[in-house]
Amino acid sequence: MGIRMLVASVTVVAVAGALTGCAAGPSEPAPPGVQPVSDPAEIATGLQAPWSMVRLESGSTLISERDSGVIRELGADGELREVATIDGVAPQGEGGLLGLEVVGDQLFAYLTTADDNRIESFELRGEPGSYELGPADEVLTGIAKAGNHNGGRIKVGPDGMLYATVGDASDTASAQDPDSLNGKILRMELDGSVPSDNPTAGSLVYSMGHRNPQGIAWDADGRLWAAEFGQDTWDELNLIEPGGNYGWPVVEGIADDPDYIDPEYQWATDDASPSGLAFVDDTLFMAALKGERLWVIYPDREAGVDAVAYFNGPEGDDGYGRIRDVIPGPDGSVWLMTNNTDGRGSPQQGDDRIVEVQLSGLVEG
């Protein structure tokens, strides 16, 4: 498989009407946020149905492949190698080896088994270029699985807690059942126990009423954002409140129903089908699968949310097809991971791949 490391230049460019539509005066401050510039640099190729990636302080990146259950290491030198195959992974439809997170020397993985969705942890041993995993420890088991709507993103928040996005596993009623783990965002200690300050005592449920959330990220103020697949009408970007109810399956998208929390932004499902979510320099970046694009999102407390699509041309032109994950890259860049080999895309030579996108500051315009 071909792998190469490239560096693209960073330039400051003007945005013509992307935010306000007005001309910039010399004394006007630049709006907060960044945007992609230049041609993305190809970092890795030849991945098979990749789902998640997490960068390590050592410079390596760990990557999950959904259907094979394999975790790969991408070294800082561009070398790609197999770290381990996770025992018990039983891929079916959208299930398999999904989200990854690393805390210190512990790797956390969200996976589908023959019986459930679960979170396991492993000691990450060795050095860059020779990482291996210790035995699996169960963190959380018994999450209902299905051929779709498994959720699967896990991340440690700024509070040190482990958060997990869980889909409704095609049982829509579970999203409104406070005793079910499905259709929720969960918050737990690193050992899977319930934090004492969770919204409901004794419950891992942090928010409910979700259909299939697959992206979470925290902004500079510590606010939690989540990207969620809708059904037939609206995909959602939600600002998560502890104990909040986001309405599924009663409502989808902005409903102005006082019983539920409306999304901050919504897309037609053909334009998004959102998965990974990242926050870099006052800007959210959202990977879109069916929409085959990167959504660059500017969350402004006063003006509301603005979103601009990038890389939404035909694959091989300025597009990359289905995008599964996006994470902060080195030196203020972002990394995108495509997902064209999962049975729903149209793979091109080199798929699936990771590309690095440099960013520039916005200028009022």
Description:
- The protein is mainly beta and 365 residues long.
- The protein has a domain at 1-35 and 264-365: Neuraminidase (6 Propeller).
- It has no helices and 25 strands.
- Strands 6, 7, 8, 9 and 10 form a 5-stranded antiparallel sheet that branches. Strands 1-25-24-23 form a 4-stranded antiparallel sheet, with no helix packed on it. A 4-stranded antiparallel sheet has the order 2-3-4-5, with no helix packed on it.
- Strand 6 and strand 7 (106-112) form a beta hairpin.
- The model is unreliable at 1-27 (pLDDT under 50).
Classification by helices and strands: mainly beta
- What assembly state would you assign to the polypeptide chains in this entry? single chain
**Helix fraction?**
under 10%
The largest sheet, given as strand count, sense and whether it forms a barrel, is:
5 strands, antiparallel
CATH homology-level superfamily of the domain at 1-35 and 264-365: TolB, C-terminal domain
Distance between the termini: 43 Å
Outline, from the CA principal axes?
globular
Low-confidence residue ranges: 1-27
CATH fold name of the domain at 1-35 and 264-365: Neuraminidase
| CATH architecture group name of the domain at 1-35 and 264-365 | 6 Propeller
Number of strands: 25
DSSP summary: helix tally: 0
Q: Please write the CATH class name of the domain at 1-35 and 264-365.
A: Mainly Beta
Taking all Cα atoms into account, the compactness measure Rg is 20 Å
Average predicted local confidence, pLDDT: 91
Kindly estimate the percentage of residues that lie in beta strands according to DSSP.
35-45%
Sequence of secondary-structure elements: EEEEEEEEEEEEEEEEEEEEEEEEE
